Amino acid sequence: MKKIFQYIMLAVVTIVMASCTSDIEETTATTGKSNVQLVVGEFPAFGDSQTRAIGTPDEGKTSWAVGDELLLEMTSKTLGTKYAAFKYNGSSWELTSGELSYKEDEVPTFPHVYYAPNYKWEAGKLVLKEGKVAGTDEYIEGTAQITPNGEAITVKFSGATRNYSRLRIATMPNKPITVTIDRYTPAGSSDMKWDQKYALTSDEKGNAYLYGTFENNSEVTVKYRGATLKTYKFSKETENAKSYALDATVISANSAEEIKSAIKQEVANSKTAIILNLASDAGDNEFKTIREAFKNVQDATIDLTLIGCKEIPADGLKELNALKSIFLPDVTKIGMNALSRCVYLEEICAPNVSTIDERAFAGFIMLEKVTLGELTDVRGEANSGGGIFDDDNWTPYIDLYLPKNQEVMKGEFDENSNQYIWKPTGEKYFASPDYDNGIFLGYQFNSVKSWE
User: What span is annotated as the signal peptide, if there is one (predicted)?
Assistant: First the structure.
């Protein structure tokens, strides 16, 4: 006769770590054919040690929750090796896939038991679930044994040790970020990756997590929509079972006074790469404050990134000589003369912009690189028909980057607005003669390339 287990008696003991310890809590639940005591310890959580001041500290998962899954492997002499997954329903662990069975006169063994949310059993091996990527969650191995009466399985993590570290990335709440790492071994893998890229979304506290081993000189770059928030190089290999925190936070400044104070503080700290998170509807008053705050800053010294705002209004950043480069990841509209006569500006990056008004980029003499989104509305001056650059412009010295779906634009005079308006024609730009000749919107560029 064989027994099939559909429940687990779980005894979880917190993994011993220098950064945190927890008391064990006990609950009782009905499992299998009789009442047993279900001893559940707090989930072995990471602590942030000396890094708690970075961002909003969060020790992460601290207890078993509904939906948590354990993966077990069981071997019996007669029936061989079986694999199963058990899921926690809030009071007990239920069999959700596979089978654990053995003859009643045998004592089965359990070679492996895992808490590894990214993985599942497949043909006797742990494989990544669809859509999951190694290194984005835990990979802990515990132990299991049958109880003397044969009615339950006890699972313990008291002897388990994480052979990887955790990196908490502190950034803006509920935002998509891209994390690029070289020389990194994800949790659950033995292969070091030389170039690993993750697409993560921060939680409501602004935290995102990676689990693995970062090597000596491993470099981590955190970006938001292409805008670099933080680049960090590890000076030594990370320690197992230790939590680290990377500060990729951004200064949020919603009012004119907050903007002025933030820029003043950054400049006082000798920061030249300044990132501000503005309100989505930031307008004339906020941009006037930005111009004034940078008025006495040394020319051609500031790399400015403005996150959150959707529009740069007319004259918004006009004649801002401190700018060396500007990154506008969320901007969809750039107004008339918005960046005109920023004479020391070398690079403009607005990968989501679709509407640009006349002379937005006029008066540049140092501009070398411009990255734009898929343009659908570009406007020019009525009399000359000039567009977003100068008529006698420097575009032959500019490298222009466009998305692959950009269409050829055709300009016509519009009586209602008294402007020339360029609209998409339906013809793919990168399959057109204009692309072959490096021409866009009637301007000759040094080169035109796709940034995708």
Answer: 1-18
274 and 205 housed in the same domain: no
Boundary of a domain, candidates 137, 156, 175 = 156
Q: What is the pLDDT of residue 373?
A: 98
Q: Are residues 189 and 332 in the same domain?
A: no
Q: By the 8 A CB rule, do 43 and 157 touch?
A: no
What is the C-alpha separation between 255 and 243, in angstroms, rounded?
Answer: 35
Given this model, what pLDDT does residue 275 score? 96
High-pLDDT (> 70) share of the chain, %:
86
User: Angle of helix 284-293 relative to helix 256-268, nearest 10 degrees?
Assistant: 20
Give the pLDDT confidence of 61-110 residue by residue, as tens digits: 777 889 999 999 999 888 899 999 988 898 888 888 988 887 878 888 98
Residues 6+ apart with CB under 8 A from 428: 405, 406, 407, 408
The more confident residue out of 392 and 67 is 67
Asked if 19 and 88 sit in the same domain, the reply is yes
Q: Which of 156, 176, 210 is the last residue of a domain?
A: 156
Tokens 């939590």 belong to 243
- Condensed to tens digits (0 to 9), the pLDDT of residues 288-302 reads 999 999 999 999 999
Query: Is 277 found in the same domain as 202?
Result: no
Give tens-digit pLDDT for 145-161: 887 777 778 888 777 77
Given a cut of 70, is residue 423 above it in pLDDT? yes
Is there a single domain that holds both residue 241 and residue 255? no
Sign of torsion, CA 99 105 110 115?
A: positive
**Integer Rg of the chain from CA:** 29
For 40-49, 351-360, 362-371, 374-383, which range has the lowest pLDDT when averaged over its residues? Answer: 40-49
- Among 250, 312, 257, 260, which residue's Cα sits nearest to residue 281? 312
8 Å CB contact between 379 and 360: no
Residues 6+ apart with CB under 8 A from 334: 311, 312, 328, 350, 353, 355, 356, 357, 360
Residues 26 and 84 in one domain: yes
Q: Are strands 333-334 and 355-356 parallel, antiparallel or unpaired?
A: parallel
AA letter at 170: A
Domain co-membership, 239 together with 318? no
Measured CA to CA, the distance from residue 350 to residue 373 in angstroms comes to 6
Q: Number of structural domains, the chain?
A: 3
| C-alpha distances out from residue 406 to 314, 410, 427, 441, 449, Å | 25, 13, 9, 12, 11
In this structure, what CATH number is given to the domain that contains residue 242?
2.60.40
Q: Are residues 113 and 188 in the same domain?
A: no
Pick 179 or 28 by higher pLDDT: 179
